[in-house]
Specification:
Blueprint lengths: L7 H14 L17 E7 L9 E9 L7 H13 L4 E10 L2 H11 L18 E6 L7 H14 L4 E5 L7 H5 L6 E3 L2 E3 L2 E2 L2 E5 L14 H14 L7 E5 L6 H9 L4 E6 L3 H17 L2 E13 L5 E2 L6 H13 L4 E8 L1 H9 L3 H4 L4 H15 L15
Parallel strand pairs: 2-3, 4-10, 4-11, 5-9, 5-10, 11-12, 12-14
Antiparallel strand pairs: 1-2, 6-7, 8-9, 12-13
Helix pairs in contact: 1-2, 4-12, 6-7, 8-9
Bound molecules: adenosine-5'-triphosphate (ATP) and magnesium ion.
Family: In the N-terminal section; belongs to the MIP18 family.
Protein name: Iron-sulfur cluster carrier protein
Function: Binds and transfers iron-sulfur (Fe-S) clusters to target apoproteins. Can hydrolyze ATP.
């Protein structure tokens, strides 16, 4: 505004000029300059001596970059738009350049609020294998499977990261014996390392004892931040421990990491298997691959060596078969993990059973699954492009 003594007339003119500017498109982005935050100021002054010629308007425009090739088009369009307002005489355009911060805000807006920085695993040339561990029901052993696979892979010499994406029921830090938060260096988070595995969990960002009541968009941002702000280094494998079911996080994972593949965990129980199938078949909508199924709690070995099938049998094989049909691919039953007291105890104590009791049948089964994940070749050809092109 011109000084502190603006008259209603210049105020009204300023409003009218701003409205007129909503019609000016940025020549490259093809969105109104007003929406892009490019209009820095509109100053209207009326020189009484020259009032008959109309008001003098100076429009401050910030270009996205200094050498913007479309500068002259923009000046012409802004001038023309301002001159459509009755009472406006001379129009000047005062060009400036956006600050780095404004540019970053603009990029965030253009990318639908997803924002920066980038997720390294989502880049087309990333060689990191990304597996999302999913289940239909809760309590089937997803987190136990994730923790054991991670340390087994690390013990085999691979660089491994784990994201505990189960925002409401995070348990990975305890299972891996991590009790400290990531170290912050500028904008970057250095994840704690446990048993050779880099671990990040929402649990590390929530003050103890406080409930987490985040909804879809916030979950999406939290996951985005885990994936982008954490310094992972060169990972061979990234595992994501998903919350049970087919909720917001599963969809965010599909969007943020389109090349991730799903590993479904189920129990042998038919009712659990049916729900597990739903978790797997979400992949047909999100165009993710389903790698395979891990059946957990398959049986309890008796002192006489016989197997007690506490939860029935056949659930894992059934899910694999039905998901193969649903996805039109081959979804394998990757392993059957028996019930094992030492698995539970090891998880509670923070050192997974594949390390504390590697020859137990449960650890052997989990290590086999890990070997399968590690030795799969992963070419760049035939990668899915996923849902969101932005
Ligand atoms: N094979 C097994 N033998 C014995 N105990 C097991 C086995 N698998 C999992 N458990 C125990 O069952 C409980 C649930 O396992 P876990 O937390 O891994 O499941 P989850 O699917 O991640 O659950 P949630 O849905 O709550 O995230 C844990 O106490 C774990 O130690
Ligand atoms: Mg869990």
């Amino acid at each position: 505004m011109a000084g502190g003594s603006a008259t209603p007339t210049t105020d009204a003119l300023e409003d009218l000029v701003r409205t007129a500017l909503t019609q000016v498109m940025d020549p490259e982005i093809r969105r109104p300059v007003t929406e892009l935050g490019m209009v820095r100021s509109v100053d209207v002054s009326v020189d009484p001596a020259a009032a008959a010629g109309g008001a003098h308007v100076v429009v401050g425009i910030d270009l996205t970059v200094a050498g913007c090739p479309m500068k002259s088009t923009l000046v012409k369009d802004v001038t023309a738009a301002a001159q459509t307002v009755a009472g406006v005489g001379k129009v000047d355009v005062d060009l400036g350049v956006m600050s780095a911060e404004q540019r970053s805000e603009l990029r965030t807006m253009l990318r639908g609020g997803v924002g920066e920085p980038e997720i390294p695993f989502a880049k087309p040339d990333s060689l990191t294998k990304v597996y999302a561990i999913a289940s239909g029901k809760g309590g089937v052993g997803k987190s136990s499977v994730t923790a054991n696979l991670a340390v087994a892979l690390a013990a085999d010499g691979l660089n491994v990261g784990v994201v505990d994406a189960d925002i409401y029921g995070f348990s990975i830090p305890r299972m891996l014996g991590v009790d400290r938060a990531p170290t912050r260096v500028d904008n970057m988070l250095l994840p704690p390392v446990a048993h050779g595995v880099k671990v990040v969990s929402i649990g590390m960002f929530v003050p103890q004892g406080q409930p987490v009541i985040w909804r879809g968009p916030m979950l999406h941002r939290a996951l985005q931040q885990f994936l982008a702000d954490v310094y992972w280094g060169d990972l061979d494998v990234l595992l994501l421990d998903l919350p049970p079911g087919t909720g917001d996080i599963a969809i965010s994972v599909a969007q943020l990491l389109p090349s991730s593949e799903i590993v479904v965990v189920t129990t042998p129980q038919v009712a659990a298997a049916e729900v597990a199938e739903r978790a797997g078949s979400i992949a047909t909508q999100t165009q993710q691959g389903v790698l395979g199924v891990v059946e957990n709690m398959s049986w309890l070995e008796q002192p006489d060596g016989s197997r007690l099938e506490l939860f029935g049998s056949g659930g894992g094989a059934k899910v694999a078969e039905n998901l193969s049909k649903a996805t039109g691919g081959t979804v394998e039953l990757l392993g059957q993990v028996p019930l094992d007291v030492t698995l539970r105890e090891a998880g509670d104590a923070g050192t997974p059973v594949v390390l504390t009791n590697p020859s137990s049948p449960a650890a052997v089964a989990l290590r086999q699954v890990a070997t399968h994940l590690a030795t799969r070749s992963r070419g760049l050809a035939g990668r899915r492009l996923g849902l969101s092109p932005v």
